Write the structure tokens for this entry.
Amino acid sequence: MRRLFYLVDSIDSVDAISDDLDREGVGSWRFHIVSKNEAGLHRHRLHSASVLQRTDLMRFLERGWLIGAAIGVIVVSTLYAGLGFDWPLFAWISLFAFSVVSGGWLAGFGGISARNYRIRPFLKDIEAGRHLVMVDVPKEHEDRMKQLMARHHPEAELQARDDSFNNPFAGPRKHKRTDR
């Protein structure tokens, strides 16, 4: 899946885009809007981006789980091989699982308070009152979606495209305006 990022000035344009996407068979779960005007989105019955799309919670959780797993392997192997602890298998598995869950839990605190790395480049525009429309499309339909948006909604500026795969170790994006 690809995610296309469009910036739009008016909420009425976002509403028209939503209607067109719905007519094209793009379900509301495949496009999301980030806007400073949440009340306007609600009034127009538009699909606002979820907490998972607005924050870096999932990326930080994934990092925490991976780091917790690495720490778990080090601790379990040190206690078992290095210090010769003689615990039942269930205790070793529990210790490892605890380190994985603890890593995710601790990382989640950072993730819930951080903006999603994919939308960070657009924060100035969002704060200025523009609306970020994110559309998820299968790779084979990407060109068709770009053509549809360019033909029916020239006011929507295609800003970037990205994979919908979440890379836990990716840094902040520096999107360059893409050609239509």
Summary: Residues 2-54+115-163 form one domain.
